[in-house]
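Bug #77: duplicate submission created two jobs. Keeping one. Sequence:
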Amino acid sequence: MIEINKNNLFKDQSPYLQQHKKNPVNWQVWSKEVLEISKKKKIPILLSIGYASCHWCHVMAHESFEDKETAELMNKYFLNIKVDREERPDVDYIFQSSFQLFNQSGGGWPLTMFLDENAVPFMAGTYFPKTPSHGMPSFKEVILKVGETYKQQREEIIKQSPIISKSLQLRKSSVLNQDLEYILQNIIFNLDNKKGGYKGAPKFPIFNIYDTLLYFFSKTKNMDYLRPVELILKQLCSQGIYDHVEGGLSRYTVDENWLIPHFEKMLYDNAQFVLLLSKFLKIKKNSYLEKKIIQTIEFINNNFLNSDSNLLGSAYDADSDGEEGKYYVFNYNELKDINNIDQYFDVKPGGNWEDKIILREIKTPPESIILELNKLRKKKNKPFFDNKIQLDLNCLWVSALISADKILPKNNYLILAEKYYNNLEKLFFKDDNIFHTNSKNSVFLEDYAYAIAMLLDLSEQTLKPDYLFKAKDLCQKTIKFFYVKEKSIFQKNKISNNDLFHTPIDISDNNIPNGNSIMLLNFSRLGMKNEAKALSNSLNAYLNVYKSLMTSSLKSIDYFNMLESNKNCTEFGCII
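Kept job's structure:
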């Protein structure tokens, strides 16, 4: 029996939950047992979702969750649950969708949800300040108001739950075939043709868009598809979002010039960055971009390694010593004596961000300058590293290394990819079923989808039959565990183990391309035409309603269409 009148996060392995184990809040871990207690005791739930390297999660934690008065209010009115969105992407998906339903705008982290005793949401927010600020109420005011409202209007709130569940159901059209390139042209129209990415700020490198553009360029040779890819790669590699000292990309920039990063570094961004660079370099050679891909691979392999398993952790925090970006930025006085540095980087006495200097490359610096910068960097404390190993992201990294090996075969990236795979097999593939990360009870569609894609990449590059056999076996298990036959689509978590109020069917691209999109590619590559046809038709029906959210599906649907038409296709496009 769980004791809910104390903080129980110390039992969980998640680095994010461990950050909150000493909070005076009586935090619980999301589980069927905890949800059952809420239901029996008729206690509403305060659900807080975040992740270990999230800057604003840290801010809200310091301001509110470590504050005794705030914690007392939370414990008085709610059963409080803390979720690591990387441990439970299905929970995050459903409640981010709920936030968007309530607020008609995108959510984010920290996500703060208020649920009724049946774990159905009735109010949603993100970050709340400790004191009223910029028109926002204080978090204590929110807790008090929501808590009292639930007491007074409990029955009315519970009655609305079927409406919420119905509103979250994805809609389909009857369209089974449409002009995919027309949809892609509309996406291009909204891109910034001078600075790259979408117009305005903040700037995110949404890699699935550029991967899809490269695919269609390979198919059509239409330069309209190649130009945005070349532009964004040059911007990403030269501006402040890229770490010119050690390598690797930050999550995004807060400005439209790619200069001022939100300094956290994520494995999923850098894996897709390497994939996109290598696919582009297969089409168009560029020695400058080759240096960036080599530096980034070296950075990830050296700095993201979880030494216990020789696999990759998840992310680096934006903060060190309590200050955002401190590890990455420089003062002018630190740099002024480095010979000729201002010829290679934007280095001025006044700085380029809050009197400090974010390195922006003017031209490629000599190795001697990078060595000097590394010496300065080593004097600083590194940001916190979330060493949590996620199966889907590690599989994605293996695929990225295989792709890089095709353009840089002398670098032995294929040998490294197989070493990572062997480590994955030891940790994740021991038993009949695989798992996502720390909890062996949770696994998601993306884990299976990216594992199959990795095995197919290994099979094609090494010609070893065992990889293909394993991919086929995993494909059958994916269908068994996740496929919703009546809807011809995969759900995000196991059908037999859903602990959410709503079935999480997800067709949208997020940090990585959607699992259904990847499964359509997997079916096509394995020659499973009947399965691919059903899934392609289903994605087409969703695509007509959710075009802007499903860019990677354009590639997957077209790839299947070309194979079905007996066209000569490769993973980079179809030769017509």
